[in-house]
Amino acid sequence: MVLKLNVAIIYASFSGNTQEVAELVAEELRNQGHSAELWRIGAAVPQQLTSYDVVILGTFTWNNGAIPDIFGDFIDSTEARAKKVFVFGTGDTQFPYYCGAADQVHELFSADGDVLKIEQSPRDSQELKITEWTKGVLRIVAED
Fold first, then answer.
1. Residue 88: what pLDDT?
2. Domain named Flavodoxin-like: which ranges (predicted)?
3. What are the strands of the beta sheet with 84-91, ordered from one edge?
4. Closest CA relative to residue 18, chosen from 44, 47, 43, 39
5. CA-based Rg of the chain, rounded to a whole angstrom?
6. What integer is the mean pLDDT of 9-30?
7. What's 41's DSSP letter?
8. What is this structure's pTM?
9. What angle do the packed helices 69-77 and 100-108 form, to 10 degrees?
10. What is the CATH number of domain 6-143?
11. What is the DSSP code (8-state) at residue 23?
């Protein structure tokens, strides 16, 4: 059994899609009895991540697969890593590097689990995908 986790969900959102995913992840975590704090990059974001059991990072993909500058600035200013890091991203499959920024962030943080990739806005079956991914995060954490 997993004890109550303290989770930070830190995300960058341009059109609101990534924010919607972050909110759905937080809702599922809270439904499972965990604490989930949402932090939007560009506002006040914690620089020390070690006080969290889990950090979930979310980003949109900019241009042709790039990490958005605002997310890159966050990465550069983050002084410490959390025990467990997971990554999600939003993107558009019409571009060649679908959710490429999320893949890069996953690699930079040596993140756990698979990257959750959401096509634009999280609607219909994608909401179930988010729920299942979040439950997978909790399973991975419970295994440690």
1. 97
2. 7-138
3. 35-40, 6-11, 54-60, 84-91, 116-119
4. 39
5. 14
6. 95
7. B
8. 0.92
9. 10
10. 3.40.50.360
11. H
- 53, 83 Cβ separation under 8 angstroms: yes
pLDDT (tens digit, 9 = 90+) per residue, 68-92? Answer: 998 888 888 876 566 799 999 999 8
Instruction: Quickly tell me which residue has 């025990």 as its tokens.
Output: 83
Q: What phi and psi values does residue 72 have, to the nearest 5 degrees?
A: -60, -40
Measure Cα distances from 102 to 30, 51, 62, 111 in Å: 24, 23, 10, 10
Q: How confident is the model at residue 5 (pLDDT cuts 50, 70, 90)?
A: very high
CB 28 within 8 A of CB 38: no
Q: What are the sequence ranges of the domains in the chain?
A: 6-143
